[in-house]
């Protein structure tokens, strides 16, 4: 069962200190919540979004939090004189009951590359709490990807190349190539233009189809990873962007691929799939191929978190 956000106060400080994140959510709530509205905040954490909703004029806010930080949020609400509006409910949202249907649902439910907070399946159930035509924030979320040259950033992977303690760590290096890495990528390290790789509405089931992208390079560059992030429509005029151009608490995620130097006209054909496993956390598998400027396949590759403990498996094939 998902518990949503990590609930330590230090983690909440990290979220609150992200002025971009908190600022765009504040702007969206001010735009969406009308005087007299009933609002449900799923995964309230510190209670900040519920406080924003109350200050925007909500008549009632149900702040749902499955972890013990709900008790801290309840005190924060009281300390700010809003207990008559905000009711903090310490429960999993899938079993929580409201006293009425809500006009607006708000939830900062998005992890790195959307899925790592394990909240989407929780939010699917929350539609039962809403009036017909209720407003949902965020709404449409877009998965974004771009190839990149992350050699300067991939110390966690490249550490295994060296013979620490006079030991050959090649098996661990191969294993490390099958994992996913949180990164904050300088925009200049992207090797091609970002593309939309998938879409999801937060109250719909997570997409099951693999995400497929084909890039054609327009410059000579190097590639050793595909980087993923997301954008989210928070309101008609407010967009959350977690791209390399913006520094947020989400950053991006990197999927290592075989390093190669490319020239204009070369292509990268890339497919990303995932399965939700224990606690609704994603396990990723990514495959692809490099093609030259004539469309001839140079070699293909296969990576996946399920392969981390099979370092003997050949994952790259020459064409």
How many separate domains?
2
Question: Helix tally?
Answer: 7
Q: CATH architecture of the largest domain, please?
A: Distorted Sandwich
Kindly estimate the percentage of residues that lie in beta strands according to DSSP. 35-45%
Q: Whole-Å distance between the termini?
A: 44 Å
Name the average pLDDT. Answer: 91
Task: Please give a structural write-up.
The protein has 2 domains: 9-137, 3-Layer(aba) Sandwich (Rossmann fold), CATH 3.40.50.150; 142-318, Distorted Sandwich (Hnrnp arginine n-methyltransferase1). The protein has helices at residues 9-17, 19-32, 48-55, 69-79, 120-125, 155-158, 170-176; strands spanning 38-42, 60-65, 86-90, 102-106, 130-137, 140-148, 181-183, 195-201, 211-216, 221-235, 238-241, 252-262, 267-276, 282-291, 297-304, 316-318. The protein has 319 residues and is of the alpha+beta class. Strands 6, 7, 8, 10, 11 and 12 form a 6-stranded antiparallel beta sheet that branches. The longest helix is centred in the first third of the chain and has 14 residues, at 19-32. It is elongated.
